[in-house]
Amino acid sequence: MLKKLRNYWNKMTLPIDEGQEAPVLPLKGVKGSSLVPNKEDQDSPRVEIDLDGLKKLKIMVDSGDEVNISLAFQLIKGLHLTSLDLDFLIKDRDKRDFICFRNGYLTPFADLNVLDFGRWKQKITTIPIEIAELVLLKRIILPGHHLQTLPAEIKHLCQLEWLNLYDNKIDHLPEEIGELRGLRWLFLRDNYLKTMPPSIGKLKGLIRLNLSNNHLTSLPDEVGSLPLLDELNLNNNRLTELPESIKHLKKLTRLYVKDNPISFKQRGELRFLLPHTKIFF
């Protein structure tokens, strides 16, 4: 693969006016070629790039061809690029953020506490596994996209407190979501979930859980292991009953179960199990 990339790169030509030499950006480590290994980092070779190389990358990114864009980012992941270099490649910030994220190049987001892509018009279908690199994240806000699940690598976001993924196409969650021990707010309304993984019970700091407008037919017993849960929204699902373990939610003040096929008998049992909770049927 690397050999194919190298051959493709070397065959690329740039449009140059007659009599004009190709400009070269005087960067440390550059010796006339477009891509030169950085000698200061031999264990994990990174590459310096001159203006010729940037122009080649820009041609690939601007082509609009997904294969070319993917190849470009395979190269970019091994480069030392500045914010000015990225601005040269893709001037529009929203477009740049979208393309970088979709292709797993998350260096521009490394110092973020909040990842908010709710404003994007373009829709992402997957969260890249490189999300594990963003260890400073406290909030992820990705509503209105086409996500179907989360990568297992989400477990590395130890500081994450807020996860908002409403209005996606999520039909299951990985067990690794239970490793987000700092999570306090989890919003998953308007998705396609049929159940939740048992590891949900590990989220001991969870305060709000919104699972409304899904396809839930059951909840695991472990949902009763959330000692700080204050609000649980299960509106508009397919639940006929809730696990008896829900009686252990001593901090629960509001339970929403509207538009579920819950019998009058089960409603009475819920009131008995949660005498201090306001239940909305």
From TrEMBL:
Disease resistance R13L4/SHOC-2-like LRR domain location: 153-211
Family annotation (InterPro entries): Leu-rich_rpt (IPR001611), Leu-rich_rpt_typical-subtyp (IPR003591), LRR_dom_sf (IPR032675), LRR_domain-containing (IPR050216), LRR_R13L4/SHOC2-like (IPR055414)
Alphabetical UniProt keywords: Leucine-rich repeat, Repeat
Superkingdom, taxonomy of origin: Bacteria
PROSITE patterns in alphabetical order: LRR
Family matches, as Pfam families: LRR_1, LRR_14
GO CC aspect terms: cytoplasm
Stated name of the protein: Leucine-rich repeat containing protein
Organism: Microscilla marina ATCC 23134
